[in-house]
Design a protein that fits this description.
Blueprint (H helix, E strand, L loop, with lengths): L1 H10 L3 H23 L1 H10 L3 H14 L7 H23 L4 H51 L9 H24 L1 H27 L3 H38 L1 H6 L3 H54 L3 E2 L2 E2 L7 H42 L21 E8 L8 E8 L4 E5 L6 H8 L7 E6 L2 E2 L5 H6 L1 E4 L10 H6 L7 H10 L3 H7 L17 H15 L3 E5 L7 H14 L4 E5 L11 E6 L2 E6 L1 H7 L1 H7 L2 H5 L1
Parallel strand pairs: 5-10, 5-11, 8-9, 9-10
Antiparallel strand pairs: 1-2, 3-4, 3-6, 6-7, 11-12
Helix pairs in contact: 1-6, 1-12, 2-6, 2-8, 2-12, 3-6, 3-12, 4-5, 6-7, 7-8, 7-9, 7-12, 8-11, 8-12, 9-11, 9-12, 11-12, 16-18, 20-21
Length: 637
Amino acid sequence: MKNYFRAVRISLKYRWNLVGILLTSFMVAVLWGANIGAVYPFMRVVLDGGSIQGMLLKQAEEVEGSQIVSVDSEHSWLASGGTLLAKQLRRLASVAPTKPFPSLIWVVIFLFTGTLIKCLFLAISMILVERLAQLATLDLRNQFFRHTMKMELSAFGDGRTSDLMSRFTNDISAIKDGLTVLFGKSIREPLKMTVCLMAAALISWQLLLFSLVVTPLAFLAMYVLAKSIKRANHRAMEEMAVVYSRLAESFSGIKLVKAYTMERVERSRFLKTAKELYRKSIKIAVYSSLTRSNSEIFGVSVICLALVASGWLVLSEQTMLFGIAMASQPLEIIPVMLFYGFLVGVSDPARKLTDVFNQLQRAAAASDRVYTMLDRVPSITDPKQPEKMPVGPATIEFDHVSFGYDAHKPVLHNVCLRIEAGETIALIGPNGCGKSTVASLLLRFYDPDGGAIRIGGVDLRELRRRDLRRSMGLVLQSTVLFDDTVADNIRYGTPHASDAEVVEAAKRAQAHEFIVTRLAKGYDTIVGERGDCLSGGQRQRIALARTILRNPSLMILDEATSQVDQKSEQVIHDTLREFLRDRTAVIITHRTMALEFCDRIVVMEDGHVTDVGTHKELIGRSVFYQRMVNGELRRSA
């Protein structure tokens, strides 16, 4: 429960909301007990044929008869308090009904009014509880999202995105439900139990203690079940993450699924995962039913003990049970029935607390999953005293760099490469040779396992990531667009750019024409999730416009024009030739057209730099480059 209480602490900052919950819950509990207490005057009226006035006068006489008459100042306040209570009872008796039926009407009106007021306080309490839980959940979601944005790129790979989504939605919702019951029923129901227990104790505290003798056994059973429920919930939540992953795969690859008529296979795979979740959910249901049964058995045991003990005392007119005094005088049937009423008033909240118990165990399991992520320290961090980012184009140096996504499978081997300031180089090579990894290391998505990467003579690990990435522009083959307007997608990363600057960037990326002629709302057109409303080439041109608008000193183009037609590609390259002047640029490509404006070309194979030179130099000595120029690389890749 340690992690769950960390979530609870978030709620505690909303103090006034919490005060309101405590006050309204207290009033609900008091009115709950008062409504049960209305059984007493009802029974007096119905069974004895008395009146409320007579009952109040009798109570006043009993109070006066039991007053402590003492000159001792230590107890004088008791005598004065008794006198005041007796006066109030007599004053109330003066206006109370004197006949049975009007007295019965009074009791019914009191019961209805008390219930009405209780429901009002209950509604206010529930609203305040929901508000508190939602505010705390909002804070927790913001905290979780903020932390995930700080995590290294590897935290989002290998199916972890679906797991993060499950934690963000399903698990945090479970924590929210736990907070709702914690500040709702967990406060309200124990207060109701306390009021009823105190009222029952006023009738006979000895009989109450005798009735509660089974309580330790009930708590022991709940303690044993708690660990099993939490463990079962944790496993079910992990399985839910697998379901999220399965759904994400099927939906994102729906075109392929339909094209290869794999719907039946996907249904089978999903059903297998869903059945596993079902089995784990059933296990939770079994444990939950055991806790409810435990609560029911406990409640019935308490009432049965009270029935047997009080029944024997009433029937035998005794005050002793097993040699223990249960009352100062023989019990009457009406107080005993009221005692039963208060025990029932205890058992109902106790039954509801069983659901609270199950919900809190689920919230505890969810909290462990959420805070496991929140406690995870990012492997890529900023230095405590960062160096200043070099201004403008700068030299980039790879100094014996080695790296692998898996420690046992290195991708780059002892790479040495120097890119001069303002130079445009191309990285070419077969798929999997490490070209895109070089770009990822430049952006410091990862740190090298060996060696160092320097920009302007400064190790990337000595720079603030924010400063480093602000100086860079990135265009990927798998273009990333958001479900927003064309203009806002171009403006992404440069939020204060004017509309005129957005249009100018689009023109330079050869995107303006199709935006104004083919899109219904031009720059205000919503591109859809991941830009699905656009073609691949259109998405790439918008991404290129976004990078041009950013005006970076270092450009990274990873197959940036792979989905653009040849005519548009030539025009874009002419634009890039002008735009990349006085900028350092790294171009990853399989297309020879992109090599025309590169100063040097770097050939990579199996994670090694095998050759570096100009087009003229490589065409004469590099077999791999010759194959690429001849078009053979496209067929082999």
